Amino acid sequence: MFKLLYSREFRQKAVPYLLIAPVLIYYALFWLYPVIQCFAGSFRDVNNKLTLYNYAFIFKDPTFYKALFNTAFIVVFSVTLEFLAAFGLALIINIKFKGSGIFLFIAMIPMALPAVAVGAIWSSGFATYGWLNSFLYYLGFIEKTAKIPFLAGGNVASMILIIIIDAWQVVPFMMIILLAGMQGLDEEAKEAGYIFGGTKFTVLRKITIPLLKPTITTALILRIISAIQIWLIIVMIYGFQRLPVLLEELVYYVDESHSMEFFRIGIAYSVIISIFVSIAAVIYLKVTGAFGKEAEETA
Amino acid sequence: MNRSVKRGAIRAARMTTLYIMVIGVAMIILFPIFFLVSLSLMSGYESYYEWPNPLIPAFSAKYKLEKSDEGYHLSIYNKAEKRYERFGPEKFGTTAEDLEKISVFVKRQGNSTLKTERLKEEISRLVDRDEVFFSLSKNLLANYKVFFQVTRDAVPSVIRSIYTALTTIAISLIIGGMAGYAFARYIFKGRNLLKLSVLFVRMFPGVAIAIPMVIILGRIGLYDQPLGLSLIYSVTQISLTIWITASIFMAIPVELEEAALIFGTTKFGAFWHVTIPLALPGLAACAMYSFIGSWNEVIQAVVLTQFNPTFPVVVYKVLVGAGAQVNLITAGSIAQAFPAVLFTLLIRKYILRMWGGVRV
Amino acid sequence: MKKLLSILLILMVSSTVAVFAVGQYEEGVGKRTVVFDSRLWTPPHEQEYVINEVLVPFGRENNCIVSFSIIDDDTLLKRAKLQKETNNVTTDLVIAYCARFNDWVKGGYIEDLTSYVRSWTDRSFAPGINSMAVINGRQYFIPIASDVYLLCANKKALKYLPAGADVQDLTWEEFADWAVAMARGEGEGKVAVTGVPEKALIYQVGGIALSYGAGFPDVSSSGAVKAWEIMVKMRNAFTPTVMTYDSLVAPMKRGEAWLTWAHVANVGEIYGSNPAQYVIAPVPGGPAGKGSIAGTQGFAIPKGSPNKDLAVKLIEYITRPGMMLKIAKGAGGWIPPVSEAVAMLGDTTQDEVIKKAIDVMDHGKLSFIPPAYTGGGNWGKIKHVYDDIANKFLESGRVDTGYLRTMQNKIEGYK
User: Fold this and answer.
1) Which of B60, B191, C269, C296 could pair with C146 in a Cys bridge, judged by C-beta atoms 3.0 to 4.6 Å apart?
2) Ranges of each domain in chain B
């Protein structure tokens, strides 16, 4: 027994598990139990009897499908837009130029703002009598009597507003992850690329992006997950159930109403959402090849 | 010769485009923040009763005092309408109560000090004429002053918040960083599954389990304690940290560590002296996310604290009733944002540390 | 990196020391602390007034400290649940809103206060208001501030007022004509309601319905149909962004909206920001009178409160008629639920808002938020019914009585 524990081979094998153990213990203590409770509770009714009512309620509710569509729309467009912007910015900022430090600092400010500030900025900005219209008026784009009612738009217009606000806040978040990855990159590989006659674009496509792939995968997966969970800014500007998305519905059922029935529906929502997110994440990771065969992965 | 001139010109053009782009992006980012700051320096009257909203808060305001058969009337100059508009009660008399009312109103809505003596003095000038004009300087920081007057225990709550944020960083960096390193450097059974399940923590909507999680914390005696809060905040931060650090460690060539081993350092020594410095930008970024996440969190903190609130909770308690006083809300939220912005300023250096080549 | 690490380390150590030092210091004061969480007196200057003029003197008299915090209804309930389940109740006193009263009682979070109220003989709580605070025959809550609805108009709107109409005594038909004329004259709607779901629309429409003899909550009786017809008549008179309003204060202050009927505290805030610019009046009326929903806020004491004796004393102290009068004048915006205080206030107040509110309270056709409908989050669902109907009718432009009947059944189902 002792011999086995001290054998080099065993130690080699045990190291990664030992390194991961604290995380697992931590999650088992604080996270796992509530989540299991949540899963179990979603199949029970107010009197704790087994039921599928909560799920039936959701799948019969037209708002759910609206929320599903809106969430998908926001995720697809915001993630694409934000990734392209963040990647471009990271490439720019990764070139040494005077004032890049200041620029990075400026880019990080929106991320550091509390939700109440972001809400105040945009709800007073997009109000018909708000500062954005004032600014357009000063620039001469609009007449005093023809203010743009930004918030009066339809479903899609509202989502575009939300995407813009969200992008303003999280593009820096993605940019920083990408930037951190780019700085660890081997400059020699790039130089070699140029020496062998690569143009800027081919070096980017053939060398930088492949080398950066783990970072890009991480940045995107984290972003997709949080894009699915956008809700606070929507509620701050439109209130509950005006522009339904999945997580906003969840919060509405869990938090806004203090009925057991609604709470159960809310946690059923949480199960549905987590399943959707998992499917999206697994597909994404499979497609990008982030999860190759375990044995083949380079150490 | 000619060629190098041409190359110089191309370079100059490229740099110019770069700067135009950078400045453009910076403006887009700063533009709403400019209004945030500007609003926080305005009076209630400026922020609601002048449209188009002033771009820059005024330093003083012009007032007009009139006399009629019904009493006295106060007006303020509206810069947008370019005329004097009635300000405060429709009319008032010269009783002490009325004068005091005007003084309080000017302070609350105009952010200026109009002492009752001054008001009496202006009224006395009305003997031989129907109206007098005067100007009062505006207290630019008045909203902040109101905010901090109502805020109780600001200092201890800020300290608690700093403590909570730093413990969150420590917990998530140590526990998460270790796991991230394992995922990046070792091949082992169940690796993908484990990595995915760690991510699942972030996928599962936290709102649904907030209350049960808080109850667990209460049961182990960590209710109303900063440490309890950081344990809760770390749950989501750890999984973020694991993924970011794993991708960062993966991008660092393992050969560098091996080279250090050849020169006789221990495995830990190689990790500490070679890998950590290389991974610093990523670690700094993780620390920053943990800090910001923990610093700004309020929904769970409100439930979980009673005698020991964090700073965002204190801010929330002041602002929850100020829904339609955007000037006050902006002031409070800037006060809250300030330390987080300061922290990003501090940590920014480390994110950008390795510019211009790797220093080992 | 060493620099960063050492900075962080120093900060961490010092903040740890400070956190514990502060904890020690606060415990060392030696006076009892009454923890008082309220969803009333939220505006910063009201907070300041209540603390300095009411709570500090109380603390001096009773050798204790009152730790007063503003917390919203949802969070209050969550915290009550947490404290109850972990058996660690530290809150001594709360103020909640009447639509939530039933949730507090059903959760088993609060004490029955019936015996205390009976012993206070110098004050009588207005019976209608008090009916909301009594659940299952027991006085769980003690009313502290009641509310009604008032009309609030920007003076710029007055030029569109129909000829012969008196803004202080309007009918809903005149109100609708006014709104429509204004929209025509200005080129855009200028009337505001809370378009965001589950806010105040139920009270706004409910008030109109009361004026035509409907009950509450009632969406389908002939009086209620009349109310929906008035809403539909005004469908183009609402501001373009009305569906995003969760409160009426900001749009009215900005001048985006010129005309509304709103909760007395909101009207107080609008009016208070520049009295010269607004006219306030009792809500318009109909054949049955000036209909308004009345609500109240109430004190409650959590079960297991560590300083229950002081909490009871504090309730008694604040609901004294003289104190109610003082708070109504100083913090403003709300009507005292104590009849003695209202009588004193009616004669002496200079405050336009309170005057008009008392007028509605005394002479209006009032209905209260019925406790039978508010248990288990049902009130939110009923509010939603009103929002859905309004959405549908304002979009289609016609009142569908069949739909109203199904919706009424839905409401009855929540009872």
Assistant:
1) C296
2) 2-40, 58-140, 147-351
